[in-house]
Amino acid sequence: RMNEPASFSGFDSDRPLIISYYATNFPAASPPFSTAQARVSPMLKPDSTFALKPDQSASFLKQGLYLIQQDTASTLGLAFRVEDDYPKLGKIETLAGPMIYVCEKKEMEKLRAARGDKTLFDKTIISITGNTDRARIFMRNYFRRVEQANQLFSSYKEGWKTDRGMMYIIFGPPEEVYRLGDREVWEYKNNNVKGRFIFTRASTLFDPENYVLIRDKKFTDTWYQMVDLWRKARF
After folding, report:
1. Are 90 and 150 in contact (CB under 8 A)?
2. What angle do CA 22, 88, 208 make, to 5 degrees?
3. Rounded Cα gap, residues 5 and 3, in angstroms
4. Does the predicted TM-score (pTM) go above 0.90?
5. Residue 69: what are its φ and ψ, rounded to 5°?
6. Is the pLDDT of residue 2 over 80?
7. What is the tens place of the pLDDT at every residue in 74-120?
8. HSE-up (13 A, CA, CB side) for residue 136
9. Helix (H/G/I), strand (E/B), else coil: 218
């Protein structure tokens, strides 16, 4: 978390730690029927760098992605994110982002425009769900899923923005998960959704275990059916 001291182990004691900072605001995952693949470039240009002694602790004052290396020409490093309101989102300003999966464009504009104004934010949520009771149920259950996605899938970007995080939020935990080589398969066999989603490993310096959803137009109807259930607070 921001402003909390941290120290690092497992590095050579005779060489400094080179820490690169990336202020990039990575986009949320695209829907499963989209033709766009949410891949990250294997190389990103850092916004700033600084050095630490291996036994020196540091507090990180900026939100974003960090990479620790002792050899910047190497493909090895330790990447981590520093966040403020995380993994359980509690500030009005941070609640709008994950709503992108269930909101129309104009609704998202209203949520983002609310900024820290709870009254305006709540008004928009009620307009989506239909009434106050549904809005309360929706917010409690939806953001419980967001928190779980952050805990399970945080990577070079926030867990809720990843492909697996998106699918977890909307579809819930799969009944079965298994690995086949570089692929991870999620099987759903419940009353709301029956089907299979396949993720393929897309390793980067920032996350060797990053997985990207194999998208397909056939998921369109299933996606919107689930979104509609969320908007009606059926979960």
Report:
1. no
2. 45
3. 6
4. yes
5. -140, 155
6. yes
7. 888 999 999 999 999 999 999 999 999 999 999 999 999 999 899 99
8. 3
9. helix
